[in-house]
Write a structure and sequence with these properties.
alpha/beta, Nucleotidyltransferase, domain 5, six-stranded mixed beta sheet, 24% strand, elongated
Length: 298
């Protein structure tokens, strides 16, 4: 099938590219380490684009180019300003910006979405559009995890949780993290259950600051091994996110998780502890499909 659309999921640290046919099916894909935060000028963005998609464009010069993610941030190639919640594929398409490229074609860039809380997302809106979920709660784990509410195919609200970045900060730069040994282990059901129980016992309230130090104390007093504490901490952190998110969306009995294999497994496990059904969706597929859906309305 001929290439009809070249879509780019251009995040902070990586660039994922998809060559798609007229029905949105992925014909080919490519990856690059040249994320938006690694590039410092429009010329650098242009070179990164050409390095990834020039062969596709040469074979299909009329194919439209569209990108979502941090490429449209204030520190990206060009700023695609946020649109307000209530966004649909159509409203995102109406707010696309364009930049010229040395390929001889323009690149369309998808805007992010903002709420009045305030809160913002950039890149996740494309995955939400591509998820195919028209009513429900979508969870997008990552550095800054998003819980989003979709109604009538519109993104009507969302909340961001600092879970992923806090996990990295604690593990890499704190006395608590120094007590851990290795990554959290999904096979350690006992430690996972203890982490969830600890979070639920305190209701996600201010007690969490004391809980954090307790993970270190448990290791140095030999109540827990370093490996057990690492797993318990991982479960506790995500469980606290669930407690807060389910307070925002109290009627939630099913979530759609857009993530890679490891994070999807963790969120499915913690969701089960809260008696919430979990449907896992592939992040790359959602990004590609979202870019295609938005491009249909250009």
């Amino acid at each position: 099938m001929p290439i009809s659309l070249i879509g780019l999921d251009w995040g902070s640290t990586h660039l994922r590219a998809f060559a798609m046919d007229s029905q949105g099916q992925i014909i080919d894909r490519a990856h690059s380490p040249h994320g938006a935060m690694t590039l410092s000028s429009p010329a650098a963005f242009d070179r990164a684009l050409c390095n990834v998609v020039s062969d596709w464009h040469s074979s299909a010069p009329s194919a439209r180019l569209i990108a979502g993610g941090m490429v449209g941030s204030i520190n990206g190639w060009a700023e695609a300003r946020y649109v307000s919640v209530g966004a649909t594929a159509q409203t995102l398409a109406r707010s696309l910006i364009t930049v010229d490229t040395t390929l001889g074609a323009v690149l369309h860039i998808v805007p992010g979405v903002k709420s009045d809380v305030p809160d913002v997302m950039r890149g996740e809106e494309t995955q939400i559009i591509g998820s195919g979920v028209t009513d429900g709660v979508i969870v997008l784990p990552g550095t800054h995890c998003k819980w989003a509410r979709v109604a009538d195919a519109a993104l009507v609200g969302f909340t961001t949780f600092f879970t992923g970045e806090l996990n990295a900060l604690i593990r890499q730069h704190s006395a608590v993290g120094k007590a851990f040994d290795g990554a959290a282990d999904l096979g350690d059901w006992s430690s996972i259950a203890q982490g969830v129980a600890r979070a639920r016992a305190n209701g996600g309230a201010g007690r969490w600051l004391a809980d954090l130090f307790a993970f270190r104390a448990g290791v140095v007093t030999h109540h827990r091994t370093a490996a057990q504490a690492s797993t318990e901490f991982g479960a506790w952190l995500i469980a606290n996110e669930f407690i807060a998110a389910l307070a925002v969306y109290p009627a939630t009995r099913r979530i759609h998780v857009v993530a890679g294999e490891t994070l999807a497994a963790w969120y499915s496990t913690i969701a089960a502890a809260f008696e919430v059904d979990c449907v896992v969706l592939d992040g790359e597929q959602c990004a590609a499909r979202g870019l295609w859906e938005i491009s249909r309305h250009v």
